[in-house]
Amino acid sequence: xxxxxxxxxxxxxxxxxxxxxxxxxxxxxxxxxxxxxxxxxxxxxxxxxxxxxxxxxxxxxxxxxxxxxxxxxxxxxxxxxxxxxxxxxxxxxxxxxxxxxxxxxxxxxxxxxxxxxxxxxxxxxxxxxxxxxxxxxxxxxxxxxxxxxxxxxxxxxxxxxxxxxxxxxxxxxxxxxxxxxxxxxxxxxxxxxxxxxxxxxxxxxxxxx
Length: 209
Hints:
The structure is a single chain. The chain is mainly α. The protein has one domain. The protein contains eight helices and four strands. It has helices at 2-21, 23-36, 89-97, 104-109, 126-133, 158-171, 174-190, 201-208, and strands at 42-48, 58-64, 114-116, 143-145. The strands form two sheets. The protein has a two-stranded antiparallel sheet with strand order 1-2. Helix 5 crosses helix 6. It is globular and about 45 Å long. The model has no long low-confidence stretch (mean pLDDT 88).
């Protein structure tokens, strides 16, 4: 019952409240982004959605723009050469506090995403998509945050991230979602796992020792 009805109901209620309550925040961040680096306030990117009838689906994810207009498009941050050079001053703050993800509330409201679920992969991240397929993680609606995000985030390698996403799907319940929700708040406050250009950084640092 929770998976088929209440999870979506909670998404609609919380995203609707968030859109209205955060209006002052929308305005302040929009002005800051525009002032720091002229250009669009929002950034849209093609992401992989929940599989439908066993087929891969896509949608446009919304984010606050945190990178300069000259940044290569549709390239994961960890594949950029020296990604720090492309991040704006305001963008650095947005990424460290995860505020750049805030516009995804609209994706949640439209049903393209859920508050909790595996983070949606880029349209060309076939390695992550295929690895998740082994664990059935592509069969659930992607989320704003999830089990992998509170267990390493950018520090995790693809296979580890996919395994954690599969673990979430296996244990999907109201209790699991609450654990991810409050775990995310703690991780954001501590800035855990945020490594620019850093997929797999946890293993890289370990290998250097």
